[in-house]
């Protein structure tokens, strides 16, 4: 049995019908019963899940009552029960269990003589350091360690550092002689002081150093802001030239509570017009990256035209394993044309970029728009990332495009047609059957407007003036896109938006699968005001039939002080942007915490998004106004 922070009490019991069940007793005195075919008396240990669900370990038994097969069971907040068999089979039991600060279940296994971990998707990993560990009970301490009793001793285990990789730090001149530089923000939004190792790995032989590592202590709530990453490394004693520098930055956080309580984001810019323009990108969580041989990432929205060009970047996020990747370009006209470029080999921690990737193939094989498929090859996998940057051919401003997996329902957080701003919509159907994209748009709290677009098999369509073309009119608000096949059933598709001014300064906003919006609290780091930039904070209600109430708390990144919270009420598909969000508090840099406090949804769902926009110019009308997206971070 176990009692959870939300007031629920979980235990196992035999019902009046003789069935063995898992029972949840709520603070109001209500009993809820959960059954799965294998729930029986062999439950070993339980642990509350941070999302309001439960983890527990149990064992199948042989006729003599001996454990033969360990099972980890996940009960999700919606009542769904998923069972994960402990590999290898047989002789692999499951002992003491606790949810760790990383949101996964950690447990002991006597047959394996090891401590093991399983996440919500059923991915197992095992600690293999030569130490035998076992215990029938386990807890997570306030220090973030796992504690369990073994052989009359109290034993603890410290989770490995939380690893992220900033895909590119840049300090070099481009072909036109313009100097590109990267700034960096690293925020600790957790509750404990965290040791952060920032490890730069050069991807070019012309750089003065192959590696440079700096250790920083980040107090709770603090945010480290570095205006020029390479200038900062020089102040730390590293001999780095003024140009020719490109590489990755590993962010290794130790003792963070929660485990994912550190966020990092970089922004690479260059002089352009009256100010600067560029692109921002968050650190890639190593645990979330594909790592097995055969894993594939897809990048949509690639184009090569008189107005735009697209670069494709590839990253090896492993600190010790080499990587071989194949890149296949797929035409977006529905013809199914596929063209392979030479395989790419990346040493540990290395980055490379395929400039104007659609023009990198023989001229007779070229096409103006399409997508890329990046696949891991070789005998041993390594975590890897990929992203695309769509560059304006006049301003050189870039729009960051992350990998996307097709989904039946996605939400684009901001679909914009106000003033000089135009939205370009990218729709893609990578399947072998036609699909219809059904769109709903509710600008400025107005009644929903709808439109449909049918995509042929393997078709990608780029709609540059989509509001006019589809009759969606003026306004700002989220766009919900649902993909359906010829029978009206859910089908996979991809949608995202690029918002830009007539001068060519803009930003890409990804389509997020609605199924991924599970968090009740998110953080947006990297907010800044002054020194040539300003930050806005956007809030989006992803529900089509429910009103949400959100609590927004701004935290001063220099002191860790939380400011007085604001309360925002958003109607169905409501959108709210807080311009220059730091200015009322008189702070130069910080981060935002956004928490859902109530919802009118009858199912209890209250899906929402939050993101920041870092704009060039301290006030509207200054600089280029170019924006870079600061995405939200979650604990799981």
At a glance:
With 636 residues, the protein is an all-beta fold. Strand 3 (20-25) and strand 4 form a beta hairpin. The longest helix is centred in the middle third of the chain and has 7 residues, at 229-235.
Please give the CATH architecture of the largest domain: 7 Propeller
| Biggest sheet architecture | 9 strands, antiparallel
Helix content: under 10%
Provide the β-strand percentage band. Answer: over 45%
From the N-terminal CA to the C-terminal CA, the straight-line distance is: 24 Å
What would CATH call the class of the largest domain? Mainly Beta
Shape: globular
Structure description:
With 636 residues, the protein is an all-beta fold. The chain is 2% helix and 52% strand. Strands 16, 17, 18, 19, 20, 21, 22, 23 and 24 form a nine-stranded antiparallel beta sheet that branches. A hairpin with a 5-residue loop joins β7 and β8 (81-85). The longest helix has 7 residues, at 229-235. The model has no long low-confidence stretch (mean pLDDT 90).
Structural topology:
Elements: E1 2-3, E2 9-14, E3 20-25, E4 31-34, E5 43-48, E6 54-61, E7 67-75, E8 81-85, E9 97-99, E10 105-109, E11 114-118, E12 124-126, E13 138-140, E14 146-150, E15 153-157, E16 162-173, E17 179-188, E18 194-202, E19 211-218, E20 223-226, H1 229-235, E21 245-254, E22 262-272, E23 275-282, E24 284-285, E25 296-303, E26 308-316, E27 323-331, E28 338-346, E29 351-354, E30 369-377, E31 384-392, E32 398-401, E33 409-417, E34 422-429, E35 435-441, E36 449-455, E37 459-463, H2 466-470, E38 475-484, E39 494-500, E40 506-510, E41 512-513, E42 521-528, E43 533-541, E44 548-556, E45 566-570, E46 575-578, E47 589-599, E48 608-616, E49 627-630, E50 632-633
Antiparallel strand pairs: 1-2, 2-3, 3-4, 5-6, 6-7, 7-8, 9-10, 10-11, 11-12, 13-14, 14-15, 16-17, 16-21, 16-24, 17-20, 17-22, 18-19, 18-21, 22-23, 25-30, 26-29, 26-31, 27-28, 27-30, 31-32, 33-38, 33-41, 34-37, 34-39, 35-36, 35-38, 39-40, 42-47, 42-50, 43-46, 43-48, 44-45, 44-47, 48-49
